[in-house]
Write a structure and sequence with these properties.
Blueprint (H helix, E strand, L loop, with lengths): L1 H24 L7 E3 L1 H7 L4 H13 L3 E4 L3 E4 L4 H12 L3 H25 L2 H19 L3 H17 L4 H11 L13 H19 L3 H27 L1
Antiparallel strand pairs: 1-3, 2-3
Pfam families: FCD, GntR
Protein name: Transcriptional regulator NanR
GO molecular function, one term: DNA-binding transcription factor activity
Length: 237
């Protein structure tokens, strides 16, 4: 009985993987007709229930879309949508947040060379203006706008890479780190350091100095990496 239950539960997964591989190998374009659910069940010699569950898995991944009176349509999945939907369920502890902080670090450090090389002069100027706005809100102690402008600064920087995927990853991940900014709001020394880091990073990218920009990004990233690591140790201890 246990074996039968196991087979029933893995059948849809096995079929979904076969269908995914077929879509990929046949290089079916976004919007292309695949087949109907009934045709799928017949061709792969499975029950309609198994076919429906397998299709459901691929629909959830964004690989297929069901259309009434038409059938199954191939879709190009959006990895950012999947990450945004799945991320909240993956963050159960401070250790998970620390893992995401390291992912953000890798993305932003890796993006520096691309932003320095691909960013337009206009984008560089906009980055410098965001750094100046960031200074203004810190000096005025407009605490509600500190994280808002920091997010805008880093989002703009990643947009300068020319990659929609990289820029989108920043928008998805950054919401998990907003609480870290509160640590600096009442600390004048940290505020001055943050102003300097943002302005120096913007200037380095404007000057097309990737080595200097990487150094500044590393310094800036250390602040929130240390913050998340400290919270993780506190949770464990």
């Amino acid at each position: 009985m246990a074996t039968d239950i196991h087979n029933q539960s893995t059948q849809p997964d096995d079929l979904a993987e076969r269908l995914r591989a077929r879509i990929q190998s046949e290089r079916l374009a976004d919007g292309a007709f695949f087949m109907t659910e009934a045709d799928l069940a017949e061709e792969y010699d499975v029950s309609r229930t198994v076919a429906r569950e397998a299709v459901g898995r691929l629909v959830a991944l964004g690989l297929l879309e069901g259309r009434k009176r038409i059938g199954l349509i191939v879709r190009r999945p959006d990895p950012l949508r999947l990450l945004k939907l799945g991320l909240p369920s993956l963050v159960d502890s401070q250790q998970d947040v620390s893992e995401l902080a390291m992912l953000r670090y890798v993305i932003e450090m890796g993006a520096i060379d691309l932003a320095t090389r691909n960013g337009t002069d206009e984008q560089c100027q906009q980055l410098c203006e965001l750094a100046d706005e960031f200074e203004a809100v810190i000096r005025k102690k407009e605490t509600t706008r500190i994280s808002e402008l920091d997010i805008a600064f880093h989002s703009h920087l990643l947009q300068m890479t020319g990659s929609k995927l990289i820029a989108g990853m920043q928008r998805v991940l950054v919401s998990f780190f907003e609480s870290a900014y509160h640590d600096y709001q009442s600390d004048e020394i940290s505020g001055e350091r943050m102003i300097w880091e943002h302005q120096e990073l913007a200037a380095a990218i404007r000057d097309r100095d990737s080595n200097r920009a990487r150094t500044m990004m590393q310094m800036q990233s250390q602040d929130w990496l240390i913050s998340t690591e400290t919270k993780e140790k506190h949770e464990q201890g």
